[in-house]
């Protein structure tokens, strides 16, 4: 049995195919490329039962990941993050079957570790020595981390406004970090010029085909954690959109294997009202989005004014009868506090946005009371200390605690 | 088969026994109490094979945990953290078989989640409504987190100097947080007076018997991850010492079950030169430690001038032919950076201290080249942003990246 059933790369827009065993970036038509597997052979050679005794990391699905050889894997044990039932929170918003897929419990504290683990492993397997990427913070931290482990040099360009802690991650892992007085699209343009000038491997979102393969494992895990009886709705905080595209891709692959049935979860793209290009395009029935001017939100990871994979996000939402919805910063910060106080789950602001969306969709009747609903929390709230207000009394050693709290 | 084989509580100093099904704190002799199980019955009713298909959380060992009923469990999916081989780092210090047990990959980003998950679950099962504790930061964050999920009110007292992010955790999870202008022993005294005055459940380190039961699961996991062929050395950053006591307890329990053989890993207590009471007592052949005056270290979690369980730490070290060793702040910060740059593993300062200790013990010949050595990284470096120096150039959108890095 092959370790990976990877077959070729395919353009989802013009359907051109490419060799998967050389370094590849965009299609000549400008679209991202997607990895395709020999799913017919995999249906014979890969069974659900085998998974049961495998280690709890995303590499348990190696047959449907792009790394050819086990020894190419660069891993810190990422994946199989907890699926946490949050019934108290759920009951308070009329969805007793509410769950959080908690991507805070992963190396680097963010789901970006998945894309980086698979992307860096495959980059190293294909001979990459230096990679470059723009980032809103967490992806840069994750790629710096896995690049260090792989012995690859990483050039990271990050907006000055990105979360401070992600700078630390890049710096301590030995990446070449640059801050830009601008947004992620400015960082992206700087990286594009650098890649062009210096021949580095472009690891920008969807400009290499393997980050999404790491992200799709969230879809495999959700299906496995629900014992292959997929939930009704998955809400995803959507910036670049690789996660939601990946989950959709994973679900389709599982259908091809015959591991799940025809019904798919409705995928919901959640954005911030200060940066909602996907929501606007979905509402207007467009196939792709327009650049969102003067975008802003405290949920920094979803401050992406125009995503390269916008058309794929919109396809995933429409093909699953999902929807797209925008929430206010104030609402999502309140949701972050409510989720922690009710359930002890300290989500990142992006993750908290999905709770606001679920509550609204339930109120509108779009989510039914008996449905099983998954909020994707893309990272730990610990990486965003500025979103929490602290007001704690200071005691002297001789002071006593008050009896009424 | 019972869900838990918990039998009674025992004083490890005077061997008095207590009922395990009422709230209990210290022995009348002043010693902490330890949970004892019916290991003879467990040897019949609990097998290694059953573990293979259980979920990857610490609750997979529920037979040897103190929670009586499955529905009492308060969980966020904690446990089964990665055991990460770090061969490049290992070869550079002459220990190719070097591993890091990475407790950063757990809810709350610190091993304290284990003690809190089990301690809070059992507290709720025993009817606790309000608990109080002093903390150097991470334990408070973890107990606040699990208390929120359990619906228990938590009163947390923390030194002003404790890591900022742990304040956020306490606050957002709805705990009553107090800061003290002093060290953890001052916080402890304030809590002791509060407990006395207001009848709260005292959740201070080792003043309730179940936190250690959560921590011991690190020992179970290390043994299971090495396929029940335990490593030669485990190095542990030692403050209150509950982790090292717990690992020793776990290993002894596994011996009683017959799951591991006679040989135990040598346990090494690693402290900071600015706070090394255990090291001093070990060197002087004492059974317990003296309060360390004016203690200080950047590794805040091991700034514990006098631990209640010091005699148990010393016993664990001596019974396994281990040792105790102190390292400088400067060395441990350098080790933190080296581990990240070599392996992409961003350890907390406490965890990084164990790397310095391993290197020194190897140089002295105490660790042999062919031994399998585990560094316990007790938490994520992300919770300690102040330990990383960042020096990143700032670009304007029109700027280009340099070609030589």
Automatic annotation (TrEMBL), chains A, B:
One of its GO terms (molecular function) is L-serine ammonia-lyase activity. It comes from the Bacteria. Keywords: Lyase, Pyridoxal phosphate. GO terms for biological process: isoleucine biosynthetic process; L-serine catabolic process; L-threonine catabolic process. Residues 74-379 form the Tryptophan synthase beta chain-like PALP domain. InterPro entries: Ser/Thr_Dehydratase, Ser/Thr_deHydtase_PyrdxlP-BS, TrpB-like_PALP, TrpB-like_PALP_sf. The keyword Lyase applies. Its cofactor is pyridoxal 5'-phosphate. NCBIfam families: PRK08197.1. This is Threonine synthase. It comes from Ktedonospora formicarum.
